[in-house]
Amino acid sequence: MKKLINTPGTLLTDALTGFAAAHPALDVDVRRRIVTRAPTPGRVSLVSGGGSGHEPLHAGFVGPGMLHAACPGEVFTSPVPGQIHAATTAVSGGAGVLHVVKNYTGDVLNFALAAELADDDGIEIATVIVDDDVAVEDSTHTAGRRGTGATVLVEKIAGAAAENGEKLAVVAEIATEVNARSRSYGVALRAGTVPAVGTPGFTLAEDEMEWGIGIHGEPGRRRGPIAPARDIAAGALDAIAADMPLEGEVLVLVNGMGGTPLMELYVMFAEVTAWLEARGVRVARSLVGDYVTSLDMTGCSITVMRLTGTLRDLWDAPVETPALRWGR
Amino acid sequence: MKKLINTPGTLLTDALTGFAAAHPALDVDVRRRIVTRAPTPGRVSLVSGGGSGHEPLHAGFVGPGMLHAACPGEVFTSPVPGQIHAATTAVSGGAGVLHVVKNYTGDVLNFALAAELADDDGIEIATVIVDDDVAVEDSTHTAGRRGTGATVLVEKIAGAAAENGEKLAVVAEIATEVNARSRSYGVALRAGTVPAVGTPGFTLAEDEMEWGIGIHGEPGRRRGPIAPARDIAAGALDAIAADMPLEGEVLVLVNGMGGTPLMELYVMFAEVTAWLEARGVRVARSLVGDYVTSLDMTGCSITVMRLTGTLRDLWDAPVETPALRWGR
User: Could you tell me the residue range of the domain that residue A98 belongs to?
Assistant: First the structure.
C-alpha cells in the first residue's frame, strides 16, 4: 500500500491537524473530532458528518453559507453519537439544528441517537436523509438507496436558507426538496484502498470497469469492459432518467472519486452536457471536481438536480468554505 | 490504460469543451486552444500556458485577479507560438503583457517566438521564467531547474499587482521576486500515464517511491523505500532549506499530483507545518490541494515561499478563477 501517511492508526488525527493548520478561520477540535464555526444567534445551524475518506466532505464544507459543524468518523466508519451531540451543542444558535445525514445504516442510527441527546438538552433537531444514488436499492451499507453527490447540494442550498434566516421547518423542507429533486450514479475504474486494510476494496481487470458504484467500494450494478466517456455518461444518465424525468433547468455535479485527474472530469462534463442538451434539458448550473470522494478510487459520479428558481437562487448565494467558495 | 476519455486524440478538445461549458464567464476557443477573459484597458495582462495534464494549471487560473489567458498544449507538449501569440493579442489592454513561463525548453522557446510576434504588433512583452524545483539542476525537459508549484504563486501575486494597475516593469519584477523567493520539491508514489502512450511514465516497486520528481514523469533524484509522511516532509524541506534559508513568514503550498486523496495532503501539510514551526519559521499562508498536477500521478510537491508584507497583501487580494477564489 502506498500512501502519504504516517500510520493508518494516526491518519484521521494527522489529517485533522493539517486541516486545522490550513484553515484557521474554523475551530477544529482534533481530540473530539469536530470541526465548527460560530453559530449566528437566532438562526438555524447545520451539522453533518460521516466516515472519513470522502474529503472534502464534510469538514471542507464548514463555513459561512454552508455547514456549521462536521463530525468525521474513522475511515468509512460512522461518527459516534457523543461526537455528533457535542458538535450539535457547540453550534446551536437557539433556532434549531438540521442534521444532514447520508443514508448509511450506521450514520442514520448514530445521528438519531445524537438527536435524542440534543432533544434532552432542549435543542430542536430536524433531520434530512440523503439517498440520491439510483444504482442500487439496498447495499452492503444501507437499507434503501445510498447518499452520495447530492449531499453537497443539500448542504449548500439548505445552508443558504439557514443563512437567510429561515425557520428550522423551512430549512428542513428545502433540504428534503433538494434530495428529492436529485439523482446520482457512479462508476469506478479502480477501487480505493482503506489504509487500515492495505489492499483495494475490490479488484477489476485491466480492461474492466464497475457500473453503479458507491463511495465505500461496495458492489455496484455490474461490471463491463472499459467504455468511452460518452458511453459512460449515457449509461449513467439513462439510469438517472429512468428514475426521474429530466426536463427544464438542471444543476450537474461531475464528481471525481479521489484518484481521477480534473482533465478527465471535464471530458465527462462535456459528454453529460451534450447528452442532456440533446434532450432539451438545460444545464444551468454546474460543479466539476472532487467533492465526495472514496479515498484514491478512480472514477466519477454524476449528479443531476432539477432546479427551481428558488433553489437556483440559494445555490448562487455566497459561500465561503475550504472546498466551495464564491461571492456575489 | 483506464481513463475517463473518448480517445487520446480528442482528449484536449473534449476537456476544453467541458471546461467551456462549466465556466461560461470565460471565453474558450476550443479550436485555437486559448482560454481568455476581457482585458482592462490601460492595465497589464498576464498570459501563461504549457502542456496539458497539469490541470487546473493554467486555464483554471484565468479570471479576475489572476491570468487573462491560458494556452494549453497537447498533454505534456508545449503550446505553439501562433497559439500563444493569438492569446497575447486577444488580451492585450495596451499596457503590455506578462508571459509566465515554466522553465521547460519547448515552453521557453515557443513563448520567446510568440513574444517576437507580439513585439512586431507593437505589444510590449515581459517574461518571467519559473524555475523553483530544487530537486535536479537539469532534466530531460530543461536546461536549469524545472518550474513547478511556484507557478501558481507567481500567477496569483503578479495577477494581483496587474489588477492594482502596476506598470509592466513592476509586475514583471514582482513575478521575478516571487519565483526567487520560492522553492519546491516533489515525490511520487506512482507515475502518471500519458493517454497517447498508455503505460505509466516509469515503474516503481510496490514498496518504492521516487524522490525529487518533476511534473512530467522524468527521473528525480533517487528511489527509496516508501517512507512515512513525516520523513517525506523532512526530506523535501531539508532539500529546500539547503538551497534557500528558511526564516520569518512563509507561504506553503502542499500540492497533489492528481491521484492523491485530499486527506493525505492534509497529513503532509501537518508535517510540513510542524517541521517549519519547530525551526522558528511561521506558516502565515497556505494552500492545500491539486493545483499543478501530473495526470494521475500519486504523490505531492511542497513549495515554500518566503513572504514579505507586500507579497502577502497581493496574495490576500481577491481572486475569482475556476480553481482559486476568495473575496475580501
Answer: 13-180
